[in-house]
Amino acid sequence: MQELKEKILKEGLAIGTEVVKVDRFLNHMLDVEFLERIGKEFRKRFEDCEIDKILTVEASGIAVACLAAQYFEYPLVVFAKKTSPNTMTEDFYEADARSFTKGTVSKFRVSKNLLHAGEKVLIIDDFMAHGEASLALTEIVKQAGGEIIGIGAVIEKGFQGGSRKLRDRGYKVESLAVIREISDGNIIFD
């Protein structure tokens, strides 16, 4: 998506050789009008897919998933929680996801009454790096007996191999902007 690449170059910031900061429009402050176009692009990329639910992770994926939902005729959006709040009293599906950016492992949890066997689920997130978050979400969908229709990422750091891992497992992956390299403060796209 050319418009996204231009926005990353204009408003994003390369930090070192592995981090892209896009907090001016995607994951700290939201450009809602722009994210609507992101949602519309996901619909184009998955136009041949019938979905029952969109699954994402709190917090950065929620806005993107919600804005995409309007273009899929408003399926319910479910987001995995990274902590177990005291309001999560029912059983839940759980999978571990390592964050290489934060150097932590999170336990993603989704209440069992929110995902069901036979549901067609589209996974959408803001970033894909090593693919760990998406792999954890696929595990949760499998635990529920659902069908993974595809995985969408707004920005992919292609050099970290996440989409390759997911495609090797047979998943359809659509990334709207793929970064090939970060070098000397420059972001280079595929």
UniProtKB/TrEMBL annotation:
GO terms for biological process: purine ribonucleoside salvage; xanthine metabolic process; XMP salvage. GO terms for cellular component: cytoplasm. It comes from the Bacteria. Gene3D superfamilies: 3.40.50.2020. Keywords: Cytoplasm, Glycosyltransferase, Purine salvage, Transferase. Its EC number is 2.4.2.22. Residues 38-176 form the Phosphoribosyltransferase domain. Pathway: Purine metabolism; XMP biosynthesis via salvage pathway; XMP from xanthine: step 1/1. Signal peptide: none annotated. Xanthine binds at residues 27, 157. It is found in: Cytoplasm. InterPro entries: PRTase-like, PRTase_dom, Pur/Pyrimidine_PRTase, Xanthine_PRibTrfase. 5-phospho-alpha-D-ribose 1-diphosphate binds at residues 129-133. It catalyses: XMP + diphosphate = xanthine + 5-phospho-alpha-D-ribose 1-diphosphate. It is an enzyme of class 2 (transferase). Its main location: cytoplasm. GO terms for molecular function: xanthine phosphoribosyltransferase activity. Converts the preformed base xanthine, a product of nucleic acid breakdown, to xanthosine 5'-monophosphate (XMP), so it can be reused for RNA or DNA synthesis. Homodimer. HAMAP family: XPRTase. Belongs to the purine/pyrimidine phosphoribosyltransferase family. Xpt subfamily. This is Xanthine phosphoribosyltransferase. It comes from Lentihominibacter hominis. The lineage of its organism: Bacteria, Bacillati, Bacillota, Clostridia, Peptostreptococcales. The gene is xpt.
